[in-house]
Amino acid sequence: MVGKLNIHTAEGHIVISRRTLIKNIGASALLAQVSSNALAAAIKRTGLKEYYAKDFKIGAAVGGRILGGDQELESLLIREFNSITPENCLKWASLRTADGGWNWHDGDRYVELGTAHHMHVVGHCLAWHSQIPESVFKIAGEYISADELTKKMQEHISAVVGRYKGKINAWDAVNEAIADSDGNPMRPSHYFNILGEKFIDIAFHTAHEVDPACHLIYNDYGTERSGKREACVALLKRLKERGVPVNGVGIQAHLHIDEPDVSEIEKSIIEFSKLGLRVHFTELDIDVLPNVWKIPVADIATRFEYTPERDPYKDGLPAEVEEKLAHRWESLFKLFIKHRDKIERVTTWGISDDGSWLNNFPIRGRTNYPLLFDRKHQPHQAYYKLLALRK
User: Fold this and answer.
1) According to the model, what pLDDT value does residue 292 have?
2) Alpha-carbon span 166 to 55, nearest angstrom
């Protein structure tokens, strides 16, 4: 990536090495000469995916704006990332119609996008307790039988995995099956209440039978922390003992600017790797807003009340917070680089701040800054720190 850049400004132009530009990105003397637009133009051909090509895949979650034809956002995606995950279009509620039929439009568009640009395409997700109708599990308010749910799961998974066989490289086969509390290690979902842990086995075995070459992942949040990490390790050990074809583990990594410490995240990388599984960071973002409830949760059903003091950065991110956020990203990627032999992929949950779910979770209507690109789709300071690590 080393080379000369010609950066045009109102006063003329500067010739500077790419190495010097990135190493000194925070220096006021340099920034005084280079406008943000000129800088963005100078680096527009050097996406993150190129800098980390020898380490791990760099991914982003893709939502309705790109699938709907937002060319600016799509161009940013193509430049920076070499892996994609769908936010919603491959979930049960998006794929299935009220009468049990299929709506393939957005799923097909998503896979076509990844295929056209030679990306690593992830499927998300085959079995999840959320975004799925009650009618899948109940008739007249009563649970269906284990055999009936097994049949529904096998039919659904076979159809979805079969349609995209050879085009989707990895599937989040099961999402968020572990409980948040220590009292019950498994989430009491409809899947679990009817089938017990067997529903996990069914999802993995069915997907593997349809597409044996596909990389199958167990995905969950909070597994970068003590408590849920140990519960996840125990579950994965049970699955492997039963011969379930699980290939990787997804650490969602919905993190806060202040915690958890990177040492906790490192423990999870090491523990999951010891099981012989590839580690994926599947939904990475960094919340900068006050975590007044002090609980690490990413269950989308969780909601809290809006108050102004919980939304302090409506008019922009203060410089000191921007710098703190950049150092947080930098510390994470230093860790990822250290363990690049264990990590398959690092995916952010979204591309730019304006499209992040954290603007509305767990409090609606806030202004958050959790991703590497801002609301104008320009790089945050953190972006340049990540480039500097692999200059």
Assistant:
1) 65
2) 24
> Can you say whether the dihedral through the CA atoms of 330, 78, 374, 124 is positive or negative?
negative
φ and ψ of 137, to 5 deg: -110, -20
Which two tokens mark 345? 């992929």
Active site residues: 176, 283
Q: Measure the CA–CA gap between 294 and 41, rounded to whole angstroms.
A: 41
- DSSP class of residue 252? -
Cα(242)–Cα(18) distance, integer angstroms: 52
For residues 81 and 150, give the distance between their C-alpha atoms in angstroms, rounded to a whole number. Answer: 37
pLDDT digits (tens, 9 = 90+) for 310-368: 999 999 999 999 999 999 999 999 999 999 999 999 999 999 999 999 999 888 999 99
Q: Which amino acid, residue 377?
A: H
Residues 146-177 as b/e (b if ≥16 CB within 10 A, e otherwise) read eeebbeebbebbeebbebbeeebbbbbbbbbb
Rounded Cα distance, 245 and 212, in Å:
9
Which parts of the chain fold into alpha helices (H)? 18-23, 28-33, 36-42, 48-51, 64-67, 71-80, 92-95, 105-116, 146-163, 190-195, 198-210, 228-241, 262-274, 319-338, 381-389
Cα–Cα distance, 204 to 174 (Å, whole number): 8
Place of tokens 């190493």: 23
Query: pLDDT by residue (tens digit) across 129-147?
Result: 999 999 999 999 999 999 9
* Residue 188, token pair as written in the block: 């009491």
For tokens 């650490």, the residue is 251
Q: Is the pLDDT of residue 46 over 80?
A: no
Strands 142-143 and 170-175: unpaired
CA distance 11 to 59: 37
Q: What is the mean pLDDT of the chain?
A: 89
- In this prediction, residue 45 carries a pLDDT of 58
Token readout for 270 is: 């090491």
275 secondary structure, DSSP code? T
**Alpha-carbon separation of residue 213 from 63, 76, 162, 377 (angstroms):** 26, 30, 12, 36
